[in-house]
Amino acid sequence: MSTTKPLARIPLSLVFLLALAAFLPLPARAQECGAGWTEPVVCEVELALYRPDDRRGERFDGGTLRLATRSEIDLEAVAVDQDGRRFPDDRLVYSVVPSRYCEDLLSVEALEDGGVRLETGSATGDCELLFQVANNLNLDRRIRVLFEGAEYRGRGRETMWQGTLTLTGNRFARFAQVNFLNPERQARETAPGTALAWNSVTTGNLAGLDLWLDEAERGTLEIATNVVSGTVDLATLADNVVVFAGGGLGRQLSVYRLPEADWSRHVSLQHTVTFAGGADLPVYLRVTQADGHQAWTSPIYLIA
Q1: Distance in Å from the first CA to the final CA of the chain
Q2: Is residue 268 part of a domain?
Q3: Which residues span the domain enclosing 61?
Q4: What global pTM score does this model have?
Q5: For a Cys-Cys bond, which of 79, 98, 154, 301 suits 42, CB 3.0-4.6 Å?
């Protein structure tokens, strides 16, 4: 695709929505770009639309995007970092995911040079696409090891976690406990910069450990607990979440990256809920903070 600088600059959102009859929602900031980041972070994304037979970028400032039937259009994105410079293209990862309503309307093809091609069919209608930018493109050095869940519902549901963590091929500069509420059950460093051991408990909630690595993409993390164990290659972790299921009630061990500093305290999102009707449907919202604290809403009823 063309390397011409796209014409439209749009503040970064964790999720953009495009559609055949589509719109961009109010932007949600993925991180505070004035928070003193030492590595490049994505603060804005420039979007451009190109016709395959016309490499001049078309301005797109949000609102409705209308496509003709049996047509093609290419989408190209360029990210801008906290200093106004172009974010490294080899670290920029984005995808376009069609909703189930798009099946008969269009197809999405990932191009070799990193762009995305939208191709419409002969049918007409409205269709939502999820344009998603990975939220941790600078491959931060902060790794979270999270354990959660319970044995079952009711009394005696506690899960005791006795675990060890060993890092080879890398070192961590420091570590921090997440949601270790019992002062008698704590984590300790058993080998400087390379190994930890802990004793904790969850009763359906979560707890964990954060590691700040010397190098973001090197080393192997070996985790052994009395519930579930696993090994994670940090060179291939990228922006993925590695999960090891531990049975019981939502009991699992997971490993993923986080920004080196705290995220923004503000987020906005849009989600479409559908149901077949026939009975009222209660919808709940749950918020999980970076410190492990959680909050739930009362049910929001969709009336049949």
Answers
A1: 48
A2: no
A3: 8-133
A4: 0.57
A5: 79
